[in-house]
Structures are given as structure tokens and as C-alpha cells.
Amino acid sequence: MRRALATMDAVAQADLVRRGEASPRELVEAAIERIEATDPQINAITHRRYEQAIAEAGRIREDAPFAGVPTLVKALNDSEGDPAHYGSAWVARHHRVAKEDAVINRRLRAAGFVVVGQTSTPEFGLLSVSESGVHGVTRNPWRTDLTSGGSSGGASASVAAGMVPVAQGGDGGGSIRMPAAFCHLVGLKPSLGRISAGPGTSNRWGHSVPAVVTRSVRDTAAVLDAVSGGAPGDRGGPAPLPPGGLTAMVGRDPGRLRVGFLARTPDHAPQVVRSVREAVLDTARILERLGHEVEEAHPEPMLDPMCLKAFFDALSVTAVQTVEALSAELGERPGPDDLDAVTRFWLRRGREITGLELADAFVWQERLRAAMADWWQEYDLLLSPVFATTPKPVGWPWQEADGLRKSVDVLTFTAPFNTTGQPAIAVPATLTESGEPIGIQLAAAYGREDLLVAVAAQLEAERPWASLRPPVFADQADEADQADQADQADQADQAGDGPEVMTPRLSRDRSGK
């Protein structure tokens, strides 16, 4: 049973508890074993709260929708009583602890999830890889020489490696979708306001939204159903979900949709490589075969150089605001070497920008929202890459000239939907021959997560991905441990024979693409 749990999604694990075939404590203890067996290879976990998790599992209401299902939360989202250093060595030095749960974490607990730990993030979530001075490098379970992405890279690596079926993250410029694509997972950025970030939080961090990464579309739908909703003090949000929620959309025919696709970038941005372009075109062919109307079309402002410039200018001021607030709280300003290079890069722009420049950025973003809304009057979905290339190697962007600037330029396909507040989902497309995951993105009009879930489920049925396993996966660690134990127990009879060698499984999608 414990080995089988590594391959089960959250819905399946909750069903075991509902049928009396497993207890919440058993699910949590099995997850702890998987984390300890697997994390040393990828370094995704920043904090372990095992004793508290086991105690909490004993108090779970077994009629909760996800009773006892283990999860991990991102180190940027407060978990009461746990470290709250946001990936910063400077903050960690002060042993800062969260005073209360972030709204999404409180709702995950109310739904029955048990938080077993926290996952890595770059400092303040300001980079597309999960590397920081406080925790080091988080690696990709599919290939450990590659990054798992950022800023929810620890969350995605832990789910891809089978530690937990669902992990909490957040998306302020692609931070759910990019790691999901890099780790062959499902990552849905909901509409702004669909899940409350907590009064005041959404204002400070612009268009960042909390969400989760999963291995199956039904998990994404069911978890979002459980945690969606506003909170007192929010500035409004999208229309309510349809009857039955997003879960009802899994397997439901969405009808014939008009889909535009985009498989290129402008000259000022990193160019789409052939393998990524082919993944988009192959997905377009699948959608056409499913009965959708598919054509090459996209909103032109998405590719305007001002799109990322305005995004960077607005968010850089938020970075300054965050550091200033923490300085006041901690009673210490960071020294010249206390912050990571990427944070210093964002702070430098945030402190030099004038009020007029910031106002101009906001005006341009309002125009972008209007232009994007006009395009979605004619189209239902936009299909595009998530990232222009395959996953970057560990150490990117530091290895490249002007790497920090390029770390913003790579957000061509993701950041525009944070600006507009529209929902967008990343789903697996294929694996390259060398084992690099490639994902694609679907974006919908504001409030239309239902279409994203329905079409993502269609793609999942066409090329199932949840059964594919990376070389670093929890059930493989279990097999290796068992082989080692058997070898030690029977050395006399097994003289000269070594433990079982685990062969990496770099399977491509079942359609052969």
C-alpha cells in the first residue's frame, strides 16, 4: 500500500480514507517516508513539520474532501508557527515565524489536507529557478542537471518525484505554470480573485495568485473547488464557478471552441526552439482532431516589448515595498551582501523608477487588459508555449551574460496573464529524447477556468501523462531500499551480487510524440 501511494493522486488517496482502506495517519507517515527517501536527490524541502503533521492527521474529520491527504506549502505562503523567511538568508537569520496561515493554507487544512513541510523558492519569488542563498539549488526529478523552475520549483519537484500528490504554490509571472511545465505537471493559474490571497496581499504583490501543482487534471479541479472564494476586504473577483464546480468539467465536452495558437516570440525575447514549437503544433493538431476550430492567431500586445517592461517596473516597486516592510519588522536593513543578486537587481529598478514612470506602466497595463479582452470576444482559448526553450540547466541565469535581464525576458508567454488577471493552465506535452519535459499553455477569458479544465482533460485523455515516472521518483527509492535490505540480510547467498540497479525511465507520451 505505501509504495502504491506514491503513484496515487489526491482524489484517489482521499477515496482510500473514505472507504476505510487507509487512515489519515497512514497517508501522512507514508509521505514522510517518501520525502526522506527522495529529497536528498533534489533538495526541494526547506522545512519539515512531521510531528505536528502526524498529530494533525489524528484530528482530521474523515468526512473532509481530502481527509489526511499530505501536502507541502511554498515557503512564500505563511504556515502558522513555521518559518517565514521567504527564501531569504537575511530574513532566516532573524528566525522569523508565521503568526497565522495564509488564506489558501487555511483552506487546504479545512479541506482535510495535512501540511508535512515547506518547499523551496528563490528569494521573495523573484526568479524563474528555485535557487537561493538560504537553501541552495532545487533540482529537476526528470534530470537533476536541470532546474525545476521557479518560483514554485520546490513544489513542482516534490510532486513530480512522488513525495506528495499536490503542493501549494503561487503565480505572479508564471511561477506555477513554468515549474509545472519543467516537471511534467499540471499547473493552473486561476483568475485574479478566484482564490483570495488575503486582504492587502494581492494589492502588494500586484497580480500574484495562490494555486497548486498536481499530476492530474481532476486533482487540479477538485482542489481549486475546495479552496476557491474571496475573503472580506478583497476587491472583487470572477463570477462563481458553474454548478458542480470545476470537478464537473473533467470529462465534459466543452463543445466546439475557437482556439488561436502562438508558437513564436518577437526579436527582443528568447526565441522558441524547435522542440517547443513542435509541441505546440502537435497540440494544435490534437485539438483540431477533437473538433475544435484551430488557427494561428494571438493578441498582438502580448508580444509588445512594453508588456514585460511594464510588468517589471510595477513588480520592482513591490519588491522594494516588501524589503522595506521586513526591515521595519526585523529592526535591521539588509547589508550589501545580505540579499541574493536577483533581489538586488529588482530593488535597483524599484528604487530608481519615478512616480510618473510607474503611472505610465499602470496605464499601459490597463490598455493591455482592454486589448486582450477584445481578442477573447472572438476566441475561446489561446494555445502557446509556457517557456520558449526546454528547461534551463542548474545555475541559469548566472551562467549567461546579462542573465538577470534575461530572467525577465523569458516571461513572454506567462506574465501577460498575470497583468490581465486571466486564467491559464500548463499541461504536459511531451518529453524530449534526452528526458527534458515540455509543457504547453492554454489561456482563457477572465473567469473561464471551466474551459481550461475541460480542454486540459481532453488532452490528458489523448496523451496520458500521470503514469509517466521521472528517474528520481519515490517508488524507485523504495525499491532501491528494499534491494539494499535484501542484500544485507542474505549476503552469504548473494555473494558477488550487487543491489538492483534502477534504470531511469524517460518515457515519452503514449502517442509517440
Spell out the key features of this protein:
513 residues; alpha/beta; eleven-stranded mixed beta sheet; 18 helices; 14% strand; disordered C terminus
Overview of this structure, please?
The chain is an alpha/beta fold and 513 residues long. It is 38% helix and 14% strand. An 11-stranded mixed sheet has the order 1-3-2-8-10-9-14-15-13-11-12, with helices on both faces. A two-stranded antiparallel sheet has the order 4-5. Helix 3 (24-38) packs antiparallel against helix 4 (50-57).
Layout of strands and helices, then pairs:
Layout: H1 2-5, H2 10-18, H3 24-38, E1 45-48, H4 50-57, E2 70-74, H5 89-92, H6 103-110, E3 114-119, E4 131-132, E5 136-137, E6 139-140, E7 143-147, H7 153-160, E8 166-171, H8 177-182, E9 186-189, H9 201-204, E10 209-214, H10 217-227, E11 258-261, H11 274-289, E12 293-296, H12 305-330, H13 341-352, H14 355-375, E13 381-385, H15 403-409, H16 415-420, E14 424-431, E15 437-444, H17 449-462, H18 474-489
Parallel strand pairs: 2-3, 2-8, 11-12, 11-13
Antiparallel strand pairs: 1-3, 4-5, 6-7, 8-10, 9-10, 9-14, 13-15, 14-15
Helix pairs in contact: 3-4, 3-18, 10-17, 12-13, 12-14
